[in-house]
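Title: Prediction job returns without error message
Component: structure pipeline
Severity: low
Priority: P3
Assignee: unassigned

Description:
Job completed but the reporter wants confirmation the result is attached to the right record. Sequence as submitted:
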Amino acid sequence: MNEIYHIPAMLRETIQGLNIQPNGLYVDVTFGGGGHSRAILEAMRQGAKGNRQGAKGKLYSFDQDLDAYRNAMESNRFAVESQTASLLDHSPGSLSDNWQFVHSNFRYLRNFMDYYGVEQIDGLLADLGVSFHHFDCPERGFSFRFSAPLDMRMNQTGGKTATDILNTYSEEDLARVLYIYGELKNSRQLAKKIVKAREKKAIERTEELVSLVMGRPVKLLDAASQSLDNGYKELEIPTGAKKELAKVFQALRIEVNDEMGALREMLLAAKDLLKPEGRIAILTYHSLEDRIVKNFLRSGNLEGIIEKDFYGNILTPFQVIEKGLTASEEEVERNPRARSAKLRVAERLDVRG
């Protein structure tokens, strides 16, 4: 993998928000390109300077996509001296005294912390953005830029694909997915078009879905140079169609991977695992996930219901430290995909609930 796997947004601000301690226990639930994990480990080591024993902390990095693990190993960014067990059976080996890769969806955070004997943690980081790799890897089917199969699974070892959803969901369910996860006002019309089209032929490729949404056939880019090294070709997408297509593909990706359900389960587990004064830092990229995170950190529950005691004091397990920091203009210029990122940070209070 020679491409840039991912450039983390607001890396410095996120690590500062976590207030890394050299002997702390941390979890990066979205390993991706490994940028955040590497920065956490470096912060541990920097914090241990002058201590002859070095950093005694531990970082657990979750990712359900084995491409992320392979990329980290191939690029030599994480020291490997391991008796690495099979990753496919969810038994990853320890790669260093301070780092443990966990091949799993972060919805199983609580299960794996129990497995490793971890009762409490000092901090948790979640970058909810999709890695550059997924958008730039045609065969994964995440992007409408390429002619490719409609897959969209983060974990390619199982589960339903976007093709499955497009060809088996009822018209009502398709409209629900497109409206809730894509925030598309024309969700019912699109669902009707999908159902009608699949009666003639199954919708299996990105260009078929793109043509359906645009209402006209999509063309391949003419230049022979646009044929990628792996044989995939780029599609000629009019600028005016990109916003709607992005929403359609986002909706399908969220449904394929049950992203909102996984996020809710992870947040509840994080609340139980964080020590008093432990920090949680979350980067969101669209309004759906940001609303869930914002409400949870403010109230301590998924419904976002603010509870008060007899005297009117707000009862919450968190003190919000960062309420939605956005990337600087300089960072957005270097990394345009950071434009939609919001950073929220909170500290666990010494209360249970």
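Comment from assignee: result matches the submitted record. The first strand starts at residue 25 and ends at 28.
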